[in-house]
Design brief:
mainly alpha, 3 domains, 7 helices
């Protein structure tokens, strides 16, 4: 194995070990394998670590998707793109990259009923979950109801079972 390739594999293994919170393994494994004359094992170890990274990502995405409460069928794959203006579709695809998440920018969707706002929002949410971001989908009426419950509880100065209050 060429020296450049050994170094590249060693750096990737060390990077994955840090990601897995195994700093000692990252610092020692490659050096010890090379010192013992097992340089062919580096590629095998790197492959196994890549599989571990992939599996961890998949488990995280599954966990985030369950916690997100996103409707499962509302993704970009099922979105009827012909019903949306091209500018809206372009903006939705841009939002799906997740750049706004890093900046902490809020995104609000407005429009008439039945125009696809929820579907677009859910599609963006699914794309963000696929990228490993945490998302929580809640319809506006649910948020308003929860805020009303909290307001009533605070006004009464005590606790009241939220299930005892229903907003129609």
């Amino acid at each position: 194995m060429k020296a450049d390739r050994k170094q590249e594999i060693g750096e990737r293994i060390a990077e994955l070990c840090v990601q897995f919170k195994l700093p000692t393994v990252g610092a020692e494994l490659c050096r010890r394998l090379l010192d013992a004359g097992h340089e062919k094992a580096l590629a095998v170890v790197a492959d196994v670590f890549e599989l571990e990274e992939h599996d961890r990502h998949e488990r995280r995405v599954d966990r985030l998707r369950r916690a997100s409460k996103l409707p499962p069928g509302k993704t970009f794959d099922t979105l009827e793109e012909t019903r949306l203006p091209k500018t809206v579709l372009r903006q939705a695809r841009q939002l799906a990259t997740g750049e706004f998440v890093e900046n902490g920018t809020n995104v609000l969707c407005f429009g008439l009923p039945g125009r696809g706002k929820s579907h677009v929002a859910c599609a963006i949410g699914h794309a963000l979950v696929d990228a490993g971001h945490s998302v929580l989908f809640a319809p506006a009426y649910q948020i308003v109801q929860e805020l009303l419950v909290e307001t009533i509880i605070k006004r009464r100065g005590g606790s009241i079972a939220p299930s005892a209050i229903a907003v129609g």
